[in-house]
Amino acid sequence: MNILLKNATIVTQNEQREVLKGDIRIEGNRIEEVAPRIENPGIEELDLSGYTVIPGLIQTHVHLCQALFRNLADDLELLEWLNRYIWPMEMAHTPASLRASARLGLFEILSSGVTTILDMGCSRHMEVVFEEMQRCGIRGFSGKVMMDAGGQAYKEPTAAVLESTEELIRSLDHNATPVPQKVAGQAERKSVFSRRIGYALAPRFVLTCSDRLWEAVGELAEKYDLLIHTHSSENRTELEIVKAQTGYSNVEFFVERGLASSRLCLAHCVWLNGNEMEYLQEYRINVLHCPSANLKLGSGFAPVPQMLEKGINVSLGSDGAPCNNNLDLFTDMRLAALIHKPNAGVRSINAQQVLDMATLGGAQALGLAEQIGSIAPGKLADLAILDLNKVHLVPADNVVSQIVYSAQSRDVAQVMVDGEWVVRNGAPVSLEESEIVAEARQECAALLARLNL
Ligand SMILES: [Zn+2]
């Protein structure tokens, strides 16, 4: 789309973190120009007087397949939560229930100003997740959950996990539109997208994958240049079992297995031992911070202020609907800014750092630092337009504070991905809320009936 967005407050998130009043010219799927005044270029114009434009938010840890399980697994710790509810429910998905779950999650995510996600998929019917991501216009990565080890009944044979994973990678035709880029200090990566969708390997966590599977994950990441998206050091009991079984803590394990690099995206990192903070720094591993989920599962407080001090890349995620119980990144921004203050001090983290995590940090985690995360000429046109003129946001115009501490997802008016409108008047253009709610209720009831729950 060629369009000139006029008279907006623009939170650029550029290197100087400039906030300016002005115009944004978009040609096709790219931002061409950002300036206080762009005169009549002969394209469609949209007057955004009174509105605030921010880079599309980046949600780097979510489980679309769990959106259907919201409010069904409260007040439990991680391992019991997984064993008793989440794994049985994920395994009970049919293509129809998974579609309902993905649509429910995507509606909420897009409506909250998110333009890019890193989703941890399901172990089956993954084509449905990719179809729904493509249909709603979001940018993002997902991948089949890989589980071939551990005591639970949900593991698959290693060969079957690998075969279906590689089939899915190939089915995305991900080399169709490679986006080469160079991030300072890192080897060049070809982040791969086909119609905005990329594949990310999704081994669930250390205990659910055999040595052979972890080895294969490393090989596939090299072969196809893929992100590795997994959970790490979320819960103290999990950490104890990992140590007992492998002799290592989680991050040590990834270093030991040769998987530590800027490709590695670790959700949580609440419990770090010995040198693990240094490993995160040295290997440029990305930490996906999920404050709501860490609170709800009673997991603990990730040492985020210390990570930021060391220059470790931290991005934000909501995790699954049953451990949050929303997929609203505004809630997670607010919590990320609040929860570290009692332990680390009121100045340990500020609103700008949190907005950075939700934009630039996410872009870096996904290997897309040159493409998304800020509003600048040459970047992809991924934007969220906010109405910050409501009673819970006024009177002072300290826009970064407004966004992080006061704004809510209902303040998102429009969202653009790749130069196309995906949310207008606060609602996704390709999804009908009443239909999604009805479909979700029906599929959730049927899924619980299949499980005799
Ligand atoms: Zn998770």
Explain the overall architecture.
With 453 residues, the protein is of the alpha/beta class. The chain has 2 domains: 3-55 and 375-428, Roll (Urease, subunit C, domain 1); 57-365, Metal-dependent hydrolases (TIM Barrel). It contains 15 helices and 20 strands. The protein has helices at 78-91, 95-111, 126-136, 158-171, 211-224, 236-246, 250-256, 276-282, 291-296, 304-309, 329-338, 341-344, 351-365, 399-406, 433-450, and strands at 3-11, 19-27, 30-35, 44-47, 52-55, 57-62, 114-119, 139-142, 145-146, 177-181, 189-193, 197-203, 227-232, 264-268, 286-289, 314-316, 383-386, 412-417, 420-424, 427-428. The termini are far apart. Bound molecules: zinc ion. Zinc ion (ZN) is lined by residues 61, 63, 120, 231, 267, 319-320.
Attribute tags:
453 residues; alpha/beta; Urease, subunit C, domain 1; TIM Barrel; 9-stranded mixed sheet; 9-stranded parallel sheet; 15 helices; 20 strands; binds zinc ion
Topology, element by element:
Blueprint (H helix, E strand, L loop, with lengths): L2 E9 L7 E9 L2 E6 L8 E4 L4 E4 L1 E6 L15 H14 L3 H17 L2 E6 L6 H11 L2 E4 L2 E2 L11 H14 L5 E5 L7 E5 L3 E7 L7 H14 L2 E6 L3 H11 L3 H7 L7 E5 L7 H7 L3 E4 L1 H6 L7 H6 L4 E3 L12 H10 L2 H4 L6 H15 L17 E4 L12 H8 L5 E6 L2 E5 L2 E2 L4 H18 L3
Parallel strand pairs: 1-4, 1-5, 6-7, 7-8, 8-12, 9-12, 12-13, 13-14, 14-15, 15-16
Antiparallel strand pairs: 1-2, 2-3, 5-17, 10-11, 17-18, 18-19, 19-20
Helix pairs in contact: 2-3, 2-15, 4-5, 11-13, 11-14, 13-14
Bound molecules: zinc ion.
